[in-house]
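Today's session is about reading a structure prediction critically. Students often jump straight to the picture, but the first step is always the sequence itself: look for stretches that repeat, for charged clusters, for runs of hydrophobic residues. Only then move on to the predicted structure, which in these notes is written as discrete structure tokens rather than atom positions. Here is the chain we will use throughout the hour.
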Amino acid sequence: MFYINYVIINYIANMKYTIYQIPVPTTKEEESIYCKYAFRRYESIKNDIDINRYKEVYSSEINTKEFNNIISVLEEIFKIFNLNHPKDFHGHSLSVSDIVKINDTYYYCDSFGWKEIKNI
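Below is the predicted structure for this chain, in token form.
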């Protein structure tokens, strides 16, 4: 199991992030992929995560001055994309199986919390 380091980030003013989600299926093949990966706990698919099966749905920067670790940043992104979507966001509310990339590190939204994805 991978644990996310509580990296101190208060020296970085803005961090770039990108949200990836499994696309809503339009074909039988896509439906098979969707059923296999969407809303699945990390432990059940951790060795089979393929970013190419995901669609980039949003990218922006977040001001991190008020946060002191990466978990706080991820939780803020989760809150934003569940309570107050940006007007130019066209995905679904952030949920289990979605991936957030912050700088060059990928994080999997699990049923409770976040898991850093090492093998992506």
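Discussion point for the tutorial: The CA atoms of residues 106 and 117 lie 5 Å apart.
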